[in-house]
């Protein structure tokens, strides 16, 4: 007996859309979505795609009319509810564009709930194109089958981050001068929590002193080697997800 084909097909294109989804709803995809579906994936009328709205979850949808600049779709069935992600924020210092792009992409794949960029004294950048950043996180979420997009904050200076920090959230900052072993700290401070990662060159002495003086802050170490900012962010998130997150 032949095997039953997977439903929906694993090859079905997957997109986040702005419309709130529901059984039987019909809407049009235009712009980059229409180009992706029509020109890149070459969908045809009757094909199935997967759509998410960051509100209700993940749905299968049937493709209707396909034009050069528009693709009509009808929602047919819900596949998954919107996922509950661990209550973990990533607060990475801004890096060079390509390196920070990697942080945005991998943080999304690893399941972080919020990305809050930080500007420190040794940052090589002090601005972030939020529209471009959201495109990167959205595409990463589509690729890894997330049903919830990470929140993305505008960059804030370190002083403002510390001043306005919520009292109920642990601030675990990677300090190259040492601290509690990351895995041990993550087991104790499993959430709500946030990881603070420094820039190229690390925090300066005054910043480090201010962070350590904060009542919610806990210094952690990520091992005996000095890591790049993007490596530290990815490594810390991986250890947190394995010890306190949703990998178990």
Account of the protein in words:
- The protein is built from seven helices and 14 strands.
- It has helices at 31-40, 97-110, 130-144, 158-163, 182-188, 205-213, 229-243, and strands at residues 14-16, 26-30, 48-52, 58-66, 70-80, 88-92, 114-115, 118-119, 151-152, 156-157, 170-174, 180-181, 193-197, 217-221.
- α2 packs across α3, α2 (97-110) runs parallel beside α7 and α5 packs across α7.
- It starts with 13 loop residues before the first strand and ends in a 5-residue tail after the last helix.
- It has 248 residues and is an alpha/beta fold.
Q: What oligomeric state do the depicted chains represent?
A: single chain
**How does the major sheet shape up?**
7 strands, parallel
Helical content (DSSP H or I, runs of 4+): 25-40%
Strand order of the largest sheet: 9-7-6-13-11-14-12
Relevant CATH superfamily of the largest domain: SPOUT methyltransferase, trefoil knot domain
Mean pLDDT: 93
Please give the CATH class of the largest domain.
Alpha Beta
Q: Beta-strand percentage?
A: 25-35%
How far apart, in Å, are the first and last alpha carbons? 36 Å
Number of strands: 14
């Amino acid at each position: 007996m032949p095997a039953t084909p997977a439903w929906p097909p694993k090859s079905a294109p997957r997109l986040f859309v702005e419309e709130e989804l529901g059984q039987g709803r019909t809407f049009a995809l235009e712009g980059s979505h229409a180009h992706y579906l029509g020109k890149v994936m070459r969908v045809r009328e009757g094909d199935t795609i997967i759509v998410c709205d960051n509100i209700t979850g993940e749905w299968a949808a049937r493709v209707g009319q396909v034009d050069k600049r528009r693709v009509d779709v009808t929602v047919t069935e819900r596949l998954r509810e919107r996922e509950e992600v661990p209550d973990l924020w990533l607060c990475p210092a801004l890096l060079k564009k390509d390196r920070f792009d990697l942080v945005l992409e991998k943080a999304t794949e690893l399941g972080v709930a919020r990305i809050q960029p930080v500007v420190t004294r040794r940052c090589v950048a002090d601005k972030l194109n939020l529209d471009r950043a959201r495109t990167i996180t959205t595409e990463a979420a589509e690729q890894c089958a997330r049903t919830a997009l990470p929140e993305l904050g505008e960059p804030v200076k370190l002083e403002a981050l510390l001043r306005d920090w919520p009292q109920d959230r642990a601030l675990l900052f990677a300090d190259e001068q040492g601290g509690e072993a990351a895995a041990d700290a993550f087991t104790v401070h499993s959430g709500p929590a946030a990881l603070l990662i420094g820039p190229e060159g690390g925090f300066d002495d005054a910043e480090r002193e201010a962070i350590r003086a904060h009542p919610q802050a806990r210094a952690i170490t990520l091992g005996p080697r000095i890591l790049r900012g993007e490596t530290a962010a990815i490594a810390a998130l991986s250890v947190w997800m394995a010890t306190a997150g949703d990998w178990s």
